[in-house]
Amino acid sequence: MFTGITQWFNDLTTNPSATLITLAYTAVAILFSLILHECAHGWVAYKCGDPTAKMLGRLTLNPLKHLDPIGTICMLFLHVGWAKPVPINPRNFRRFRRDYILVSLAGIITNLLLFLLSLIISALLCKFMYDPELLEYAREKGLQNNLLDIYHMIFPNAVYGGVFDIVSPNVRAGCEWMLYVQRLFLMLAQMNLGLAIFNLIPVPPLDGYRFLDMFVFKGRLAMERSTMNIIQIAFLVICMSGLLSNFLGTVNGAVFGFFSNFIAHII
Known about the structure:
mainly alpha
């Protein structure tokens, strides 16, 4: 985590405008992704017969109701994190096992849908903002994916770094503002994919653990509260150390590349 903080500080001193743009994108993406993830849990639980989240005011877009300070900081600097879990009472479910599985998967499915929607919007924006000559060249060479590659290529990252002179010759006049919009949607796609993959890890209290417990083991993975607390603290230390970052980054990059290759064909 300290490496991430140091990097943010160095970027702020060397290129403050680009760093502030990046910070604004990241903050919006974190708020939007985490809040909708938790609201999805509460909404599905409500539809399954449990009004706990609704009664406690958690079916809201108010970030103060959802954001966990440590989880948000980890999300900002490590790109893995969490929000306050939405309280549920499984005893209210109409069909216990089915509804428990649905509630567990609700946040992950929501993030995956937001990932795909954001990536599709980013691809459609390319059709409007880039010159036809560039798009035709990209199609001929099979390089449409490069226009969506948030990790390596210069086009989306030029906005991320504020290097507009790289892309400006290839952007239609009057469409420069679309670069900002596309960058935001690419950041949303990256953030939501990262949240979905992170929450698939079968460690309590993540969704992957609850799904594994109920779907595979039919509730037999129940632990003592003290044991679960120890596991959660150990997992928190691992997250804050950055040990998961490289692994999750590799997985995220592979999945992002696969779907962007597929979706880029609409450009």
